[in-house]
Description:
The structure holds two protein chains of two kinds. By secondary structure, chain A is of the alpha/beta class. Helix content of chain A is 41%, strand content 19%. Chain A has 14 helices and 13 strands. Chain A has helices spanning 2-20, 24-31, 57-70, 86-91, 106-110, 153-164, 177-185, 196-204, 233-252, 259-265, 269-275, 281-285, 291-299, 302-309; strands at 34-39, 47-48, 54-55, 76-81, 97-103, 114-116, 121-123, 125-130, 144-149, 169-174, 191-195, 212-214, 222-229. Chain A is globular, with a radius of gyration of 22 Å. In chain A, 46% of the residues are buried. Chain B folds into four domains: 24-66; 92-106 and 222-432, MetI-like fold, CATH 1.10.3720; 110-154, no CATH class; 156-213, no CATH class. The relative contact order of chain B is 0.08.
Amino acid sequence: MKKTxxxxxxxxxxxxxxxxxxxxxxxxxxxxxxxxxVTTGLVGFAAPDANGKWEGFDVAVCRAVAAxxxxxxxxxxxxxxxxxxxxxALASGExxxxxxxxxxxxxxxxxxxxxxIGVNYYDGQxxxxxxxxxxxxxxxxxxxTVCIQxxxxxxxxxxxxxxxxxINYEPVPIETNxxxxxxxxxxxxxxxxxxxxxxxxxxxxxxxxxxxxxxPEIISKEPLGPLVRxxxxxxxxxxxxxxxxxxxxEELGVTSANVAEIGTSTNNPEIxxxxxxxxxxGEMMGVDADWAAKAIAVGGNYGEIFAKNIGEETPIGxxxxxxxxxxxxxxxxxxxxx
Amino acid sequence: MSDTxxxxxxxxxxxxxxxxxxxxxxxxxxxxxxxxxxxxxxNALLTLIALYVIYVVLSAVLPWLLNGVWxxxxxxxxxxxxxxxxxGCFAVLVDRWQQLLFGFKYPSAxxxxxxxxxxxxxxxxxxxxxxxxPRKMLAFTALFPFLAYWLIWGGPVLVPVVALxxxxxxxxxxxxxxxxxxxxxxxxxxxxxxVTWIIGGFIVDWLSGPSSLLRAVPSRDLGGYxxxxxxxxxxxxxxxxxxxxxxxxxxxxxxLIKWVSVVFIEFIRGVPLITLLFVAxxxxxxxxxxxxxxxxxxxxxxxxxxxxxxxxAEVIRGGLAALPKGQYEAADxxxxxxxxxxxxxxxPQALKISIPGIVNIAxxxxxxxxxxxxxxxxxxxxxxxxxxxxxxxxxxxxxxLLGFAALLFFVVCYGISQYSQWLERRLATDxx
Lengths: 338, 432
C-alpha cells in the first residue's frame, strides 16, 4: 500500500517533469547546451577520436542543430546510448534529439511516440562475398552458407529474399558484428549480410579489402534518421529544417568555404532566404536569422559531411548511391525554403 | 702404525678416496628429467606431447609479441609496416592508453589527480590489509574517501569537508547517546549527520564561487580502467560491512530484522546483476525529473553494492554457522552483551572462516564491473568495444586491446588472491 503510494507519487513527479519540459527549444537555449544521443561507437557515424572529440556522420547532425540554435557547434553534450537505452533516454527527456543511425519504422514512429524528422542516410541490407567465390549477383548464391546476426530484421529480410528467388541457403547464426567479421574471415560462411554501410565499414578493416566484394543487390529499406519526442512540434521543426538546410545547401552550392560571403554576393533569392540575408525564416522558427549559415559553417553542407565521414575518400568508401541529391538520381531532397 | 705387516701387505691406503661425482644419469638435470618427465613410457609420451603443445603455442605467440608494431597511427599503417609478416599492432595501446586508463572525456591536464588518488589508495589500504602496521595510519584511511572524492571529481573543497564533518558530528552524537540506548544512539547519530549535511549544503552553495582549486569533472566523464577500479574498490569496501550486517540480521531473533534481511538477500540474489544495472540507468530516469538526475555513478554503486552485499552476507552466514555452539555459550557465560560477543568472539572467528568466500566474491565483483559497459558507461571494456573499435583508425584490432584488458584485470585479481592466501596463513591458529 505504502509502496504503491510512493510509486504513484514518483510517476506523477515524472509526468509533471515531462509536462514542464514541453518547450524543448527554450530548454536548450536556457541550458546553453544541446543533449544529443549518439551511438557508443559506430565507424564513420559516431565515435570519439584520440582527443575525445566526437566525430562522424550522425555527430555532424547534432553539431549543426547546436550551431543553429545556440550558434556554437561545440555546445553539445553527447550522450552515448546503446540499442537498448536509446529510446528510454529520449522518452525520459535525458536527450533532446537522438541521432543514432536509427531505422524509421512504423512502430517506432507510432507506437513508441517519437517523430522521425527526416532521413539523413538511406541504408539497405547487402551481401559481401570473397572475390574468389566468383559470384557477381546475390541470385547466384544457391546453397551458400550465410553469416547473419540473430534477432535482427536482417534475418527476416534474408529469408524473404531467398524464398522469393526460390534458392536455398544455410544460415550461420552469430551474435555481434565483431564475431561476424572473424567468422567470415575464418571461412565459416561464404557470405556475410548486414546493412550495406556496415558491410563497407567492415570490409575497410580487412587486411586485404580488395579480395572481397559487395554484391549489387540491396534487399531491404533502412532509412536512418534523427528523431525527437512526440508532441513538441516547434522543436521538431528546428531539427528537421536544420537537416533540410544542410541538404538544400548542397543543392544550391553553399559550402563551408563560401557560406560567409555567398549570402550577400549571390543573386539567388532562395540562397538569400536560406542564409537569412533576406526574409524572416529564422524568426518564424524562433532562432537567429543566420541559423542556417551557422549550421552549414560547422561541418559544411550535406555532401561535405558525407564525403568527410563516410565518402569515397575515407577508408569506409561509401558511394553516394541512394544518398545522392535528387538532381543526381538519389533520394536526398529538401523542401523549398520559402 | 706398526710395521709388522709392512712386508706382507703390498699397499695400504692411508687416506679416504675423494668423493666421486654420481654417475651422469643420477645427477642434475638428467636425474630430474628422468624422474619427473620420463619416469614411465606413459609419462614420456605425455612429456613429448606437452613439449609439442608448448612449442606450437610459443611459435604462434612469440613472433606476434616480439615483432609487434608500437609506432603507427592506424591499423592500416601497422599492416604496411608489417608488410605481411606476423606481428601485433600494439600501436593502438600507445595511441589510446590515456583513453583505456581514464576514459575519453576526463580532461588530460588532470590525469595526475586520479593517478595520485591511486597511489594514495595503497597508503590508505595498507593499515587495513596489513595489521602489523602502526594503527595511527588508520586516521589517513578514514580521510582517504573524502580526499579521493575531491581529487577525482574536483569542485569546491567544502563538499568533502562538509561530508566529513557530518560523519564526525554523527559519530559524536552516537557516542553521547549510546550510553543510554543503542537505538537512540544509532538514530540520533544519523539525524545529527543529516542535519549537518543539510546546513553544510547551504553553506557550500553560499560560499563556493565559480572558481575552485581543482576543476570539477562530472561523473559521466569518468571512464576506462579508472572507472572499473573505482567501482570495484568502492563496492567491495561498502559491501563487506553491509554483508556482515545482513548476515547478523538474518540470524537475529527479532522477526522484523530477520525478515527484512531474508527478503533483501533472497530478492537481490534472485535477480541478475545486469537487470539491476538496467534499472539503475534506465528505469530510475523515469522517476526523477530530467534536471535533478541522481548521479549515474552513485546509482551504479548502490546497485552493485546491494548485489554483492547479499552474496557476502550468505558467505558470512556460512562462517557463522560453522562456529560451534559452545563459542556463543562461552560468550554468554562471560557476561558479554550481544555487541561485545559478536565483536570480540564470534565475528573474528566467523570472518576468518569466510575469507576465501569473501575474496572469491570480491574478485568476481571486480570483474563484474565491466558489465557497466552495457548501460553505456565507458569502462575499460566499454572503451574498447565502443569508441576505440569504432574509430576508423583502429577498427579491427581485437587481440591487442582485449589482451591488454585481460592483463590489467589479471594483475589485480591475482594480487587479491595472493593477499588472501597470505592472510589465511597469517591468521592460522589451529594446529593442523
